[in-house]
User: Which sequence fits this backbone?
């Protein structure tokens, strides 16, 4: 058992348990998931690992269960930092459910300028994967911003709505990263409500991207694609990458990136390539930008292209192209994005069938050192580590260290 009380084969075991309780044969379940029965059998027995998020989503859909049913997330905390981060989730939930944009509690709210700065700081913490700091008292922040948004007048209400949108993005990111998909979706939906009242195309698009990401991660692909497609169409006519304010172009680019990834998960290679190309063109025209810590630019497009390649099974070649360039991660200023890149490099090299496992271990180790809270709560990271451990002929110190840090025995 690991520090969370789970076993290395737990996802596969959960798949088998749910499949048999549903009365589904291997052939039927595999057919519904779009994979072969022998492959599903190997997944259930732990002989193959769930290194692609799309695979988890496909199997969850086939078994009529949630992704969380398969992964067992949120995990029990393995250390004090994780415990502090997870302890923020109940407060976030109360903050979202105890107030709406039409009805707020009768409580005194802190001064608006303090709340705006608080939301900005929380977003920066989230971008660097400091989830405990990002989520600390976030429920209170959400409540106070709701009060100002509803009770305030004119400009004050708009300022509160924008800060509320940013706080909801933080809440969605913290909840998603810590394994609470339902809370992430709820937070993102509230952010979209705030953006709709602002009638700002760029903010609406950033909110839509947040919602699409949260919905896609839980396996709600139809709704995720619908939200992204609607905002893509709306923003295409008003986005100008040559304008002094590039926020709309950045938001459009992020929507193309998340649409490319969703298409890759669905096996729609042509659509994925088209969206990725649009994002790359926008990034070339506006350079490295960072509105609301979305880090849109050439470096992030390259990182997303790698993640998409991994989902499509072409990870090793994509990883080779990225690592051939000196300082390939230097332009990614957010720890979350740097860690995501190294994590995806680890996943990519692991797809080489064991020939590049040393590099996979090195990049997974780097990712965990950059953003430990992000990696240690990710079920795909645990799957990758178990896979690398099972294939290892020599137990390198990095591998032993990773198993200890992630609580995998």
Assistant:
């Amino acid at each position: 058992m690991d520090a969370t009380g789970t076993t290395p084969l737990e996802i596969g075991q959960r798949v088998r348990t749910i499949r048999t309780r549903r009365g589904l044969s291997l052939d039927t379940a595999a057919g519904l998931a779009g994979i072969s029965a022998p492959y599903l059998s190997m997944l259930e027995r732990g002989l193959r690992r769930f290194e692609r998020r799309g695979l988890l989503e496909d199997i969850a859909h086939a078994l009529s269960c949630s992704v969380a049913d398969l992964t067992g997330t949120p995990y029990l905390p393995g250390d004090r930092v994780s415990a502090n981060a997870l302890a923020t989730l109940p407060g976030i939930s109360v903050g979202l459910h105890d107030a709406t944009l039409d009805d707020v509690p009768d409580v005194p709210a802190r001064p608006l300028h303090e709340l705006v700065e608080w939301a900005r700081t929380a977003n920066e913490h989230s971008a660097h994967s400091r989830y405990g700091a990002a989520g600390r008292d976030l429920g209170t922040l959400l409540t106070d911003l709701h009060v100002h948004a509803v009770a305030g007048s004119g400009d004050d209400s708009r300022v509160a709505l924008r800060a509320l949108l940013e706080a909801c993005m933080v809440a969605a990111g913290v909840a998603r990263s810590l394994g609470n998909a339902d809370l992430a979706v709820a937070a993102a939906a509230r952010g979209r409500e705030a953006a709709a009242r602002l009638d700002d195309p760029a903010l609406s698009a950033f909110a839509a991207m947040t919602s699409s990401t949260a919905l896609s991660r839980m396996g709600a692909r139809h709704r995720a694609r619908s939200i992204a497609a609607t905002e893509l169409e709306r923003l295409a006519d008003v986005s100008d990458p040559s304008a002094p304010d590039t926020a709309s172009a950045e938001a459009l680019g992020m929507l193309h990136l998340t649409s490319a990834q969703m298409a890759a998960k669905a096996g729609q290679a042509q659509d994925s390539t088209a969206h990725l190309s649009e994002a790359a063109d926008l990034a070339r025209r506006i350079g490295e930008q960072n509105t609301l810590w979305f880090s849109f630019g050439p470096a992030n497009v390259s990182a997303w292209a790698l993640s998409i390649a991994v989902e499509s099974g072409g990870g090793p070649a994509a990883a080779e192209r990225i690592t051939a360039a000196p300082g390939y991660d230097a332009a990614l200023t957010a720890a979350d994005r740097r860690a995501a890149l190294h994590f995806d490099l680890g996943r990519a090299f692991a797809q080489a069938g064991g020939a590049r496992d040393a590099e996979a271990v090195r990049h997974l180790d780097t990712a965990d050192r950059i953003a430990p809270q992000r990696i240690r709560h990710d079920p795909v990271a645990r799957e990758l580590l178990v896979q690398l451990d099972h294939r290892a002929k020599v137990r390198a110190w990095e591998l032993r260290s990773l198993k200890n840090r992630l609580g995998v025995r």
